[in-house]
From TrEMBL:
InterPro entries tied to this protein: Lipid/polyisoprenoid-bd_YceI (IPR007372), TTHA0802/YceI-like_sf (IPR036761)
Protein name: YceI family protein
Residue intervals of the Lipid/polyisoprenoid-binding YceI-like domain: 5-175
Coiled-coil stretches noted in the UniProt entry, renumbered to this chain: none
Pfam families linked to this entry: YceI
Length: 184
């Protein structure tokens, strides 16, 4: 069986994030810097995704001044410390094929240079010269030193509490890289 390396096409890939709080939710996008997936016989065997934390955008806050202020707060040490940590990453270490044709990926998620195991289900679609993966990763932000307004660390937050879990919904497109072709 042939092993094929697929390089992520950042411009054709998307990650949507959702963070919830007592009074509602915020959502936006964050870009993928680079990465790859390795398939053997059409099955995922490994991979790596590097997320560009400097690209985080907020979509639900339409007032420009408020949006800029919120983006600055997400970039700060209260959240992602993007000046110190401009990327986050997920490295696939183990893959299980599921009965429904999807895959369960397990690996190391690194945010703010803190690494913890993470696992989630993905669907895989094959195209003429590439693949698409889609799935959802739910992350407990407190494991990565993102404690701002967490009920685990602060008392009496009332309706200012921010829930610990946030979601990344992703759709990743990757193109096959064949020998003789340059990799980015």
């Amino acid at each position: 069986m042939e092993t094929i390396n697929y390089t992520i096409v950042s411009s054709q890939s998307r990650i949507d994030w959702t963070g919830r709080k007592v009074t509602g939710a915020h959502n936006g996008t964050i870009g993928i810097k680079n990465g790859n997936f390795i398939l053997n016989g059409g099955k995922i065997k490994g991979g790596n995704v590097v997320i560009d934390t400097t690209s985080i955008k907020i979509l639900d806050v339409t007032d420009p001044a408020t949006n800029t202020q919120f983006a600055g707060h997400l970039a700060s040490d209260d959240f992602f410390s993007i000046e110190k940590f401009p990327t986050a990453s997920f490295e696939v270490l183990n893959v299980k094929e599921l009965p429904n044709g999807n895959f369960h990926l397990e690996g190391n998620l690194t945010i703010k240079d803190i690494t913890h195991p993470a696992g989630f289900e993905v669907s895989l679609q094959n195209h003429s010269n590439g693949i698409s993966l889609a799935g959802k990763l739910i992350i407990d932000r407190t494991k990565y030193d993102i404690k701002f307004r967490s009920g685990n660390f602060f008392k009496d937050l009332g309706d200012t509490l921010i829930y610990n879990d946030f979601e990344l919904d992703f759709n990743i497109n990757a193109e096959a890289v064949f020998s003789g072709q340059s990799q980015n």
